[in-house]
Design a protein that fits this description.
The chain is an all-alpha fold and 84 residues long. The chain has one domain. It contains three helices and no strands. Helix 1 crosses helix 2. The N and C termini lie far apart (59 Å). The mean pLDDT is 83.
């Protein structure tokens, strides 16, 4: 996992990989091998030195849409009134 988006695979590349995995899973002989690879990858991921910096993370926040809706409605009404 890389924070630099230029070093990460594109969505189409990820799609191709997932498609290959799906085809592999259809073949029951490869299911156990794929499962082993995922288990091994989980172990490797836990050992990667990935730093987490608060400035590199974002947090979703709830936005009150009532004020936005009221402002739009008021603006529309003001424009309608001025057009008369």
């Amino acid at each position: 996992m890389d924070f630099d988006s230029q070093k990460r695979p594109s969505a189409s590349k990820i799609w191709d990989i997932l498609e290959e995995w799906n085809k592999s899973i259809e073949s029951s002989d490869s299911v156990n091998e794929i499962k082993k690879q995922f288990i091994e990858a989980d172990k490797v991921i836990k050992s990667l030195p990935i730093s987490k910096h608060p400035d590199e993370m974002s947090t979703s926040k709830i936005i009150s849409t009532k004020l936005i809706s009221k402002a739009i409605k008021d603006l529309s009404q003001a424009q309608a009134d001025s057009a008369k």
